[in-house]
Amino acid sequence: MNKIFFLVTFTFILKLNAQNHRFIYEYKYVPDSIKIDSVLTENMRLTVFKDHSEFLSEMKAKRDSAVVKSSQKKNGHVGTDLSPGNIKMFVWKNKSNIKNYSTEFVGMESYKVTDETDFNWTLIDETKKIQNYNCQKAILKFGRREWTAWFTTELPFQDGPHLFRKLPGLIVAIEDSKKHHSFQLIANYKTNNGTSVIKPSHLLKNYEVNRKQFNKKWNDFRKNPISANEQFLLMNPQITQFKSYDENGNEMDTNALKKAGTEKAKKNLVKNNNFLDLELYR
Predict the structure, then answer these.
(1) Mean pLDDT over all residues of the chain?
(2) Per residue in 251-274, is it b (16+ CB within 10 Å) or e — as a string?
(3) Which has the closest alpha carbon to 187: 49, 23, 47, 58?
């Protein structure tokens, strides 16, 4: 009987220790600096593991998790009701401050941009209550923006949304001075998810670069944008034939498809110009 009690207790403790903390933030942002009244909203997920934390779109996380599960089943498929969301960015923060990075995109091509940022916060002797947490004010200059954050020591994690971290507690809310980007904590719970849902793809590779290297890639693309299909073929030279079909099953003209894809890339560059990190995308 004592052995059974010991095993049950030991199992409970292991399960409790395996739990990770998850925080959901409501992210409001203005994608086009010309249309400041056009505000989009998407929920973001910060999961704090034992040795690192991960930040990404809640919709993307659920979609990617469903893709992984469906791939493990014969004839599995992902339901059309699962949207991938608008935010493709993914952030990895190591608690030892080694190998922190954000996944940024040039068209459809993804890059792991290593983070060398030294967050020099200025703590302000001002407090207020947000979501029933006692919070203190802090300000920061990052990405050619001025940020105001509110953090709480009631949640003992020196972390927050996006790359923001290194305050004495968890960031509950943060917003830039122009109110173009803001995050506010809306949920907090524990989860037994042990690992990231993000799985590498052999067709969509992540290239590791520093901030300066990424900025050059970004500016090269901005000067000469190409279609997603062209990017895909450049990333996968082993694919020698690539055909596309319309909704009626008719093969589409390659040149027309290329032209349409390039025009789409140009339009995306115009309407998505108000990045959170303006220094990275300058």
Answers:
(1) 84
(2) eeeeeebeeebbeebeeeeeeeeb
(3) 23
User: Tell me: the pLDDT tens digits for 47-65?
Assistant: 999 889 999 999 988 876 6
Instruction: Indicate the SS3 state at residue 150.
Output: strand
| Bridge partners, 138 (sequence order) | 123, 149
Write the CB contacts of 161 (distance below 8 Å, at least 6 apart in sequence).
25, 27, 44, 46, 55, 171, 174, 183
Strands (E) located in 145-205? 145-152, 170-176, 181-191
pLDDT in tens, 101-138: 999 999 989 999 998 888 999 999 999 999 999 999 99
Intra-chain end-to-end CA distance of the chain, in Å:
67
Phi, psi of 94 (to 5 degrees): -90, 135
Tell me the C-alpha distance between 272 and 282, whole Å: 13
Put simply, whether the predicted model's pTM sits higher than 0.70 gets the answer yes
At residue 47's C-alpha, the angle toward residues 77 and 217, to 5°, is 75
